[in-house]
Design brief:
The chain has about 290 residues and is α/β, with parallel strands linked by helices. Helix content is about 45%, strand content about 20%. Helix 9 runs antiparallel to helix 10 and helix 9 packs across helix 11. The chain binds S-adenosylmethionine (SAM). S-adenosylmethionine binds next to helix 5, strand 7, strand 8 and strand 10.
Length: about 290
């Protein structure tokens, strides 16, 4: 660790197994003037395990703006601060964005101290393609919003990575079956690095059945990884968009039909409108 002052360290901590703390994280946490932690009681347990007595302050979603100002003032006084979350890498579906952005903007050094992250940990052992992936964090909690949200990424060809808690796993994976299709391959990575670490893989419909019949699989924390869309999915999706559009055009204006077809199928409204126009012109010129 350098002996600079006024540095903000963004420190990753384990996602379960405490052996995953790095030597560097341990050293930084022991040497900083203050640790800004999402949940001080949770982090205190980690620090006690590590034999570290550094000062702790809570820094979470509800006091982020106020605490960010305080941390910036401490940095300005030349103090070194570590930011940690309850598990894994801060800012990744965790608080800290405001602070890191403001610290950089005001010219402070921000130093990452890398370590565990549930998404990368799950991906690395999932067997799904890792060359391109899209991390999406937590899906919305209500099914209607979640389905709309999933529809927006249903044609994405990269591996999709989601965070979810075990008790919402069934409803979320069931919505994935509806939006991505029953046969899309997926992996559920649960309780990573912990005693009951489990990887389940199969088609989305087989996974939802497995979850329903084995309530133990609904316990704890979960990363859901879904294979990206293939070209054949795209062809099938476009055919479905055209089928829906053809029905709606019979009863609605082109604009209404395109808008509604986009909502039903998740397709792009502009593309559907163009398609509707072409169909209308073809019809007027005597085509089918
Ligand atoms: N910042 C963390 C990271 O770097 O992975 C993520 C924090 S987010 C609030 C918590 C979510 O991460 C959980 O709901 C779960 O989806 C995932 N997660 C965290 N620890 C996990 C573990 N040990 N096994 C599986 N998923 C985990």
């Amino acid at each position: 660790m350098s002996y600079e002052s006024g540095v903000l360290y963004v420190v990753a901590t384990p996602i379960g197994n405490l052996e995953d703390i790095t030597d560097r994280a341990r050293r930084v946490l022991a040497q900083v003037d203050l640790i800004a932690a999402e949940d001080t009681r949770h982090t205190r347990r980690l620090l006690t395990h590590l034999g570290i007595t550094s000062k702790l302050r809570s820094y979470h979603d509800h006091n982020e703006a106020q605490m960010a100002e305080r941390v910036l003032a401490s940095l300005a006084r030349g103090e070194n601060i570590a930011l940690v979350s309850d598990a894994g890498t801060p800012l990744i579906s965790d608080p800290g964005f405001l602070l890191v952005g403001a610290a950089r903007q005001r010219g402070f050094r921000v130093v990452p101290v890398p370590g565990a992250n549930a998404a990368i940990c799950a991906l690395s052992a999932s067997g799904l393609p890792c060359d391109r992936f899209l991390f999406l964090g937590f899906p919305p909690r209500t099914s209607a919003k979640r389905r709309d949200w999933l529809t927006q990424v249903s044609m994405e060809s990269a591996t999709l990575i989601f965070y979810e808690s075990g008790n919402r796993a069934v409803s979320t994976v069931a919505d994935m079956v509806s939006i991505f299709g029953a046969s899309r391959h997926a992996v559920l990575a649960r309780e990573l690095t912990k005693r009951f670490e489990t990887f389940l893989d199969g088609t989305l419909d087989s996974l939802v059945e497995r979850l329903r019949h084995d309530p133990e699989q609904q316990l704890g924390e979960l990363v859901i990884l879904v294979e990206g869309s293939r070209r054949s999915d795209l062809v099938a999706r476009e055919a479905e968009e055209e089928r829906v559009l053809a029905i709606l055009i019979e009863a609605l204006t082109l604009k209404q039909a395109a808008t509604l077809a986009a909502r039903i199928t998740g397709g792009k409204r502009n593309r559907l409108y163009e398609l509707a126009l072409r169909r209308r012109k073809k019809g007027e010129s005597g085509g089918d």
